[in-house]
Amino acid sequence: MNIFCLLKQTFDTEERIVIQDGQVSDDGVKYVINPYDEYAVEEALQLREKHGGTVTVVSVGPARAAEALRSALAMGADEAVLISDERIQSDEAGIASLLQAYISKQPFDVILGGNFSVDTGGGQVAVRLAAGLGIPHAASITSLDIDGTAASVKRDAEGDTESLELTLPALFTAQQGLNEPRYPSLPNIMKAKKKPFQTLSLDDLGVDAAAVAPLTKRLGLSLPPERGAGQLIKGTPAEQAARLVELLRTEAKAI
Amino acid sequence: MSQSVLVIAEIRGGKLRQVSLEAVHAANQSAGGAPVDAVIIGSGIIPVASELAAYVSGKVYAVDHPELASYNAPAYLAAVNGLLDERKPGRVFLGHTAEGKDLAPLVAAHLGAGQISDVIAVSDSADGSVYTRPIYAGKAFEEKAFSGGSGVVTVRPNNLPPAAQAASPAEVVDRDYAPASDLRSIVKDVVRKAGGKVDLSEAKIVISGGRGVKSSDGFKPLQELADVLGAAIGASRGACDAGYCDYALQIGQTGKVVTPEVYIACGISGAIQHLAGMSQSRVIIAINKDPEAPIFKFADYGIVGDLFEVVPLLTEEFRKVLA
Hints:
The complex is a heterodimer of chains A (255) and B (323).
Chain A: E1 2-6, E2 9-11, E3 19-20, E4 23-24, E5 31-33, H1 35-51, E6 54-60, H2 65-75, E7 79-83, H3 92-103, E8 110-114, H4 125-133, E9 137-147, E10 150-157, E11 160-167, E12 170-174, H5 186-192, E13 197-200, H6 202-205, E14 216-222, E15 231-232, H7 237-250
Parallel strand pairs in A: 1-6, 1-8, 6-7, 7-13, 8-12, 9-12
Antiparallel strand pairs in A: 2-5, 3-4, 9-10, 10-11
Chain B: E1 5-9, E2 11-12, E3 15-16, H1 18-31, E4 36-42, H2 46-53, E5 59-64, H3 73-87, E6 91-95, H4 98-111, E7 114-119, E8 121-125, E9 128-135, E10 140-146, E11 151-155, E12 171-175, E13 185-191, E14 205-209, H5 220-229, E15 232-235, H6 237-241, E16 262-266, H7 272-278, E17 283-288, E18 301-304, H8 307-322
Parallel strand pairs in B: 1-4, 1-6, 4-5, 5-12, 6-11, 7-11, 14-15, 14-16, 16-17, 17-18
Antiparallel strand pairs in B: 2-3, 8-9, 9-10
Helix pairs in contact in B: 3-4, 5-8
């Protein structure tokens, strides 16, 4: 089974956001694999364990994204591909096109990605890629079973559970709870250094920067208003409950 | 702009979703005088189409077919493709819901359009509409616009006001749907979450449980309070990871971001990732045994106490007061 896993490098979710010179500052920031993409990598590895084949992790990003790809190799992925080029200014549409330019030239059975990225969170790239490749998809999956070319998935749709059947090749995006991502083992961390790692430029893909120019633009960035500590309500539990209800009705006018 | 604007409205549980009216509002604001049409897809939808028509200034297109009873990506895309090709809308609006999130990129890909997802505010500028959206799960906000071509927008529930009624109800136009014989994706079953429970993303009041609820039974007192208040139940990652509840309830940087009027956090310490999911709530209440819990640093009202004592007492108080 030829399995491709889409991956994005994002800030660690612990990071506070600082805006500097109109940009989100990356000073001293810790980078990780986008948490939802980790579920995708784990699912890819489990598919390979059941069905055999190869897991290739692919990312579009700056040079530092190589570290996230290496983490995926250390989890057990077989090969990594980084699409990186200073001329890439793309938004979600262009990133999907770049992934399509690479993946469409490979034999593939299953493409996995995360539900959305915890930074920009547009949740578009994977589904756009499915559309571009002309393959069916299921997003936000909580379980996946494959038998030949038939895939049975459950997906989380705002708390409802939908059961779908898709015909491979197909694309799936992972929801939390799909699996428990494994920690890289020491042997795998060592092996990762020797696994095939390709970096592809726009020229390697045969894609013109203009063809993947952004269709949207960012005009501004801001932080949410500061929230200070409010009031602690004292007394016995009964007094606290009564006082809270009173405050919510009179002061906060909320209920 | 001279091109028309289209809203893809959504039905859930046989009813028009509130967020669809919020999408119509966003569409009206962005249209700059161009006609705003809506399309509604499903089975047995004429009553909902008529309800929607009261809010739409252009036309309401109804694609009504038994095969469209449940959302299915290729079927719903096929249901609107013809309309997209005929009307060539400059902007398409959807709710940022499970269905909207799934359909929007397909529509954007079909149109060759950009997409701005999860919009919480729309404002005007000399060059057109500016869309505000959260990034890093609401730790920051960005303002985006389209670079000149067509665009798809998804709007986050509960942030924009619903559209006002139109001057006169729109004409409802039936559109044919030809079922595809070769769908490579089929919905076999839909299991709705327990009925009567309020939707997390649209709820005005959310009651959330953390590790402090200690078990799935521990959510019972929270559910009783929620029932009295007509509230939705949410959870922290800690509670979900511990198996006390389903991940569908998780609020946070991974999980859902909610903007209710009132957020009551029970047994939640207030990790930065959780805060990211609820910090825009209008009023935040924290109930926690630990006076040092970080959540007390920005809750509007805090009760240091045992949630198993306090929450049932709150339920009683609200029952009395709301009776």
